[in-house]
Amino acid sequence: MQDEQLQRKQMKAANYAQQPERFTLLEIKLQMRSTHGVRLISYAEGDWHCTCDFYRERGTCSHIMAAEQLLGPLVPLPTDTMPREEHHDPER
């Protein structure tokens, strides 16, 4: 039988998992076995990268698209559609 503290942590984790807006993807590295070989996919500083030829030619690829679908709501919005942060000046 699990102890009560662990059960509370599991419930809290389940609650957090239902709120993806609490998370910000900063960086990630993935290895993917594609149809034509192993691809290395990374995300850092707001940019995706892939080792495939199509990415080098076009700046995106099916491997990145698949990673975005897999990560779902954790993938940041493009910067031009992100809401601007309001400046909160206590003296205003």
Automatic annotation (TrEMBL):
GO terms for molecular function: zinc ion binding. InterPro entries: Znf_SWIM. This is SWIM-type domain-containing protein. Keywords: Metal-binding, Zinc, Zinc-finger. Residues 26-72 form the SWIM-type domain. Pfam families: SWIM. It comes from Thermogemmatispora aurantia.
